[in-house]
Amino acid sequence: MKRTINRTLQSVAxxxxxxxxxxxxxxxxxxxxxxxxxxxxxxxxSKKQEDSSTNRPFVGERPAVDVAVLLDTSNSMDGLIxxxxxxxxxxxxxxxxxxxxxxxxxxxxxxxxxxxxxxxATEGYIRQVVQLTDDLDKVSxxxxxxxxxxxxxxxxxxxxxxxxxxxxNGEPNSYKAVFIAGNEPFTQGSVDYKMACRQAIDHGIIxxxxxxxDYQTGxxxxxxxxxxxxxxxxxxINQDEQVVHIKCPQDKIIIELNAELNKTxxxxxxxxxxxxxxxxxxxxxxxxYGSGGLSSRAAAKSSSLYRNVxxxxxxxxxxxxxxxxxLEVEKFPAEMQGLSPEQRMEKxxxxxxxxxxxxAKLAAVNRERLAYIAAExxxxxxxxxxxxxxxxxxxxxxxxxxxxxxxxxx
Length: 410
Known about the structure:
This protein is of the alpha/beta class. It has helices at residues 78-96, 136-144, 155-165, 193-202, 215-220, 223-229, 251-262, 271-290, 294-301, 313-319, 321-325, 341-379, 389-403, and strands at 2-9, 20-21, 37-44, 64-72, 98-99, 106-114, 126-133, 175-182, 205-212, 234-237, 407-408.
């Protein structure tokens, strides 16, 4: 018996630097058991045609955004790591501008490092540094803890591991992307990069590649081919380009407001965890200050992307007040444990109101700051300046989210 199955595979092309969005794919099931031979014809429609799934109405509580950042930490990549550290909060702000059906996305980020000889050779010189998490302080902590050491960079293997290990969301309207950056040929290692990239796109995950070096060298090394296989974007950067942070008259006010914002956090859980959350928030403020990015971090903290549900009483109460009401007394901050349940709720609601006021002020001052930066950049335009990790990432995210149905605020 011979049957012919005709299916149409619809897809959406996405333009972004190290990450991209994949719409639904019409995957066909296995042939019937009684068939001797099945011929399958796939008609691929033009990538310019919009996939109907892109425009499906969003029905979730918040649109889901999952991003895995895969960084080469071999000897020559110190500049790349420095760029990622100093530009993290600029990148977060790009996500904060995105909305679907009026809702800011729930952003989760994972970090992998690869190509470092301090990592086990039996594991392909790969390490999952951070699982997908909405704890952006944890992501910042992980980036600042990275160090480099020479090694073999296995792009196919680290992409494959990221696809398999991470708990990627199943929201049909989600944006899922891998951003991989490095400088050696994409073809190294025992895992075929073509297989890994196809594996990613089969799971609705776009792969965007950032080659650290010459554009044509990256093409020759198959970085562009890898991106195209997974409907992502190929980019190249100069990993040794110095990141320029423009000092603004608004910085002083933003830093003061950031200090006030920190006072509104009511960390909860076991005592050790409470102290750890508070200490890490302060540590990442310090890290951002040292790399010239504290104003950007403070601005990101004023958005709903910086959330600490499950760690902070205010954020948790706003999402699930019953969970807070049922919390054991010893899990509350020490200063709240002696209060009555009613007094605890009054304290949380008071802090929620205070936080909202500070965030509104921060957002307003940051708009002035961004306008100042734009004007200064226009005056000092340097055509010789090369793209950095943050430049490529931000542009890709902005374009990709827009293509995938998000509205982007200016």
